[in-house]
Design brief:
- The chain has 132 residues and is α+β, with helices and mostly antiparallel strands.
- It has one domain: Roll (Thiol Ester Dehydrase, Chain A).
- 20% of the residues lie in helices and 38% in strands.
- The protein is built from 2 helices and 6 strands.
Length: 132
Amino acid sequence: MRLIPHARRLGLRLVESKGDNLVIEMPFNDELEVIPGTGLMANGAITAFLDTALGAAVHYELKVFRTMVTLDLRVDYFEKPPPFSAIVVKTRCLKVTDHIVFVQGDVFCKDMSVPLAHGVAAFSYTPMEQDA
């Protein structure tokens, strides 16, 4: 996570990597509030977090660094996180093809059984020279 400038700026940290799952945390940051002083995190911050976490899951799945781009990202919001709360994303790679990886992730706060949002994405990546 430290290699991704955006992840460093958001304060993201890897909590767990197990099988094809990553759990990544984003602490509360008052710069991400929708209305200053309320502690309510903006949906755009959650979307940026999901995009970064799902991209990290792709890198984790591929085992080597590759140039990649987000082709598609869909986020469904169920409810806002409680004010001033850190959030976590649990990711899972669904399918890896020759040039595209499909991933999903759920956003949680304290209770890992109640998702606050769900995201699905497709990332395109370039094969390494030796892969071609």
